[in-house]
Design brief:
The chain has about 600 residues and is of the alpha+beta class.
């Protein structure tokens, strides 16, 4: 073998070894890419082109008794971008041919179409220039969203979501509550969040290197689920009337706050629960009074004053310890052996009053003389059966007072007496309404409520309250007290109120002193009227309450609002006028 031949073979061997080594390197690299790193590289690649999108489950509506929406969800759009793709481009900007569209021109047009801010957009893009996601503008309605998409900017994308709106605004804001950035914040939104909330789903789509979504690439990975519909007993039209009525009256009386309720006697349904001041859930930041974020009618406790006397009278009759014509000698004031003293609101000579006259004139002294025929425990038990001293079982609403009073009264001598005319004990406006619903319903108390239940997306009704009625006093006792309360309107503390033509009204006033801590009772008052109509067959109960009025500190100041609201109720529901004269008993002897 010649030297040249050996040299050629050596070169050939070296070349072959090099080729084999190179192939081996490629094979090893290919195995590493396709096998060893396949999963991680696939995910990395997917992250570069596969874009996750949240599908929002729609939050359920809150509706009134007729299906009118009190709270609803509407579609809103967030406009996003991938900062690494933001650059000048060629094309049309809103239908106008522009050879070269700069980023500044695109952002300026986007801000004009959406109402957004260019500086904010630039800041969000610059925060992470190499990222695949940044918000440009949030919460666009359909009109603004369509204006944005018409611009044809290739590196902007939509993110669809639901936004909460409240069509009836402040009129029902005290009940619906509102949503915040951290979810449900108050009212029914908070109490029934589990029912109302939808569950979000997800999908992905593929995006090309130019940032444009690839057609047909969308894949749903999880289905969204809509929330249920919360059905209330509220009549939104009547709620608006009640809201306007007490707001106007509160301003005239210069009251700190006010409430109003309307109850269907036969069902215990609350048709209206109004508060002043109240919150507009569409503009929560405009409400400076944090107490207005909820409903004072449901959560605020106060000493009810003389509206409680109707319950004491019913208990006396139910126990056979008194009657409408039972006689009492009633001086202006009364002093007790333990040193306490009470008196009536206005000075008078000693009078001979019946139980009817005591209610008519709202005599503190008279009700304590007859009420003392019942033990403290008996009176306490009746008050509790009427709905006092514990939260309303059929109402789920945040902030209701616990009012865990136990099974026996813990009253000192003074409170034992004062409780008979509504001082020294705490109630809510709803609890006072419950007393009068019971009396109007022949002595059967139906738990007051304003939620029927929640209808889920699959048609089932959940969260329906237990509204089974319980007898508190006999039908005879309830009827006699209702008849006696007509005297309050025809000749008592409401005699100055203009009659509601064609209807017999049974009602009771209350003027309660307001405690000022260790200072005792001061000059401030809480005035109220609670009543029912038509008295011979009550269909509706109306209550109004005004806290710390300055222009008129007597219950007569609350009477016009009561009359206006009761008139609206009777007219709206076309209640037949009374066909008999008001039934009255002798007030004196």
């Amino acid at each position: 073998m010649t030297k040249s031949t050996r040299s050629r073979r050596l070169r050939y061997s070296v070349v072959m070894i090099a080729v084999i080594a190179l192939v081996a390197v490629f094979v090893i690299r290919l195995v590493d890419i396709q096998v060893v790193q396949a999963a991680s590289l696939n995910e990395l690649s997917k992250e570069k082109r596969s874009i996750p999108v949240t599908i929002y489950g729609t939050r359920g509506s809150i509706v009134d008794r007729n299906g009118t929406e009190l709270a609803d969800s509407v579609t809103r759009y967030n406009i996003t971008t991938a900062p690494r793709l933001v650059k000048d481009f060629e094309g049309k900007l809103g239908g106008t041919r522009v050879k070269d569209v700069t980023v500044d021109q695109a952002l300026t047009a986007l801000a004009k179409a959406s109402g957004g801010d260019v500086a904010t957009m630039r800041k969000n893009i610059a925060a992470n220039p190499k990222s695949d996601f940044a918000y440009l503008v949030k919460g666009l309605d359909v009109q603004h969203y369509e204006a944005v998409t018409a611009l044809g900017i290739p590196w902007i994308y939509k993110e669809q979501q639901a936004s909460r709106v409240y069509p009836t605004g402040a009129a029902t804001g005290n009940l619906t509550g509102f949503m915040g950035t951290d979810g449900a914040q108050a009212g029914l939104e908070y109490a029934y969040d589990q029912c109302l909330a939808g569950s979000n789903g997800s999908q992905t789509y593929e995006r090309g290197s130019d940032g444009v979504q690839l057609p047909g690439s969308t894949v749903t990975t999880k289905q969204a689920k809509d929330g249920g519909t919360l059905e209330t007993t509220i009549d939104s039209d009547l709620q608006y009337m009640a809201d306007q009525t007490i707001a106007s009256a509160a301003k005239q009386l210069q009251a700190e706050s006010a409430t109003a309720t309307v109850t269907n006697v036969k069902t215990g349904e609350l048709l209206a629960v109004a508060d002043y001041p109240t919150v507009d859930p569409n503009n929560v930041d405009a409400t400076t009074d944090k107490g207005a974020f909820g409903s004072r009618a449901l959560t605020a406790t106060y000493e009810p004053g003389s509206t409680i006397k109707a319950a004491i009278a019913a208990a006396l009759i139910d126990q056979g310890r008194s009657s409408p014509t039972d006689q009492a000698v009633v001086p202006y004031s009364r002093t007790f052996p333990w040193g306490g003293t009470i008196h009536d609101s206005e000075f008078h000579q000693t009078e001979n009053l019946t139980l009817t006259g005591i209610l008519r004139d709202s005599s503190n002294v008279g009700i304590t003389e007859l009420g003392a025929r019942l033990t403290a425990q008996q009176r306490y038990d009746y008050m509790k059966k009427f709905g006092l001293f514990e939260p309303e079982s059929a109402i789920d609403y945040p902030g209701q007072p616990s009012m865990d009073y136990g099974t026996s009264p813990k009253w000192d001598d003074q409170t034992n007496i004062n409780s008979m005319f509504g001082q020294g004990i705490s109630t809510t406006a709803i609890q006072v309404a419950s007393i009068y619903q019971t009396l109007a319903n022949d002595g059967v108390r139906i738990p007051l409520h304003f939620v029927k239940g929640c209808k889920t997306a699959d048609g089932k009704t959940i969260d329906a309250p237990d509204v089974q009625g319980t007898r508190v006093v006999s039908a005879n006792a309830a009827t006699q007290v209702t008849d006696m309360l007509q005297s309050v309107v025809t000749g008592g503390t409401l005699v100055g109120m203009q009659p509601i033509s064609g209807y017999n009204i049974a009602a009771k006033t209350g003027t309660a002193e307001v405690a000022e801590g260790s200072k005792g009772y001061g000059s401030q008052r809480i005035t109220s009227v609670a009543g029912m109509a038509p008295a011979e067959d009550p269909q509706y109960v109306v209550t109004v309450t005004f806290t710390k009025p300055q222009a008129n500190k007597w219950s007569s100041g609350a009477a016009p609002a009561f009359r206006t609201l009761m008139s609206q109720v009777l007219e709206k529901y076309r209640v037949a006028p009374s066909t008999t004269q008001a039934k009255t008993y002798p007030s004196t002897w």
